[in-house]
Design goal:
Helix content is about 55%, strand content about 10%. By secondary structure, the protein is an alpha+beta fold. Helix 9 (about 210-240) packs antiparallel against helix 10. The longest helix is centred in the C-terminal third of the chain and has 35 residues, at about 210-240.
């Protein structure tokens, strides 16, 4: 009974032959490696400094070797639009650079061709512009509008608050709770390159698969805490009612056996603890 692990699978809650579950099976079979449930990397710090951005690029490079991150058709980690794609749209476009220069008075350069402006002042000027105006393609078209930008970047033009950005990656196979746990551990290990950078003050892994894992762990942890408390409370009640330690123990022993047998049965037959079974317990 003590070896029962928390797990989550959609088949525990829906008919295995339903269109919904069959559709998920097809997704796993054909395109799982190219998609997956969104995992979010939260990054906070002085993200106007090119050294901080370089550390983030190192982290993205590590994702290429992470087996739990989804890949696109070329085998590259499936990152959604992010701070690097936004900056590269500016540095690679003469029109966009000109708009930032016109607004800030600073010339935007990228001499090393890494898609990041060459100085902290240039990066800040770029953030100041795009957070208010979006990323322009030409006079009439935006590549990213302000709403899209603010989903992936928080920037305070006054400099009073630190920058925040997110990197969104696909995590395939999150129907299996063991995969979610392994993906979180692998991503946390990859984050070490960011944790070691003094310009970055906070990083973390979040997103629906990892939030669900936290909720499931909390539910099963509550179960493991509440069962002995309940047993102790029942024993006290029996002692007060029967005024006999022997009768109290004899009465509560079958209850303990039933609980142990129930979870031992679940373990033997391949069931796991989930939101429903933990709540019922």
């Amino acid at each position: 009974a003590l070896r029962l692990d928390p797990e989550f699978d959609v088949k525990d809650f829906f008919d295995s032959n339903s269109d919904f579950v069959v559709s998920l099976d097809k997704l796993d079979e054909h395109i799982a490696e190219r998609s997956g449930e969104p995992g979010i990397i939260y990054i906070k710090g002085d993200l106007t400094d090119p050294q901080a951005l370089a550390a983030m690029q190192q982290f993205v490079g590590k994702l290429a070797k992470n087996p739990y991150v989804g890949r696109d058709a070329d085998g590259v980690p499936s990152l959604q639009d992010n701070i690097f794609s936004m900056l590269e749209r500016i540095t690679s476009s003469a029109y966009a650079r000109g708009q930032v220069t016109q607004a800030s008075g600073l010339e935007i350069t990228d001499k090393d061709g890494d898609g990041i402006p060459d100085s902290k002042e240039q990066v800040k000027a770029t953030y100041d512009y795009i957070i208010q105006n979006g990323v322009p393609l030409n006079e009439s078209t935006l590549v990213y509008d302000v709403g899209q930008l603010r989903k992936g970047l928080f920037h305070d033009p006054s400099g009073g608050e630190e920058n925040v950005t997110v990197l969104v990656v696909g995590i395939p196979g999150t129907r299996e709770q063991t995969t979610v746990k392994a993906a979180r551990e692998a991503l946390t290990e990859d984050l070490e390159v960011l944790l070691q950078n003094p310009l970055i003050t906070r990083v973390g892994v979040t997103g629906s698969p990892f939030v669900r894992e936290g909720q499931l762990s909390a539910a099963t942890s509550s179960l493991q805490t509440s069962l002995p408390i309940a047993a102790a409370a029942v024993l006290v009640l029996l002692l007060l009612t029967m005024r006999s330690l022997r009768y109290g123990l004899v009465t509560i022993l079958p209850i303990g056996l039933v609980v142990a047998w129930l979870y031992a049965f679940m373990y033997v037959f391949g069931f796991g603890l989930n939101f429903v079974t933990a709540t019922i317990a």
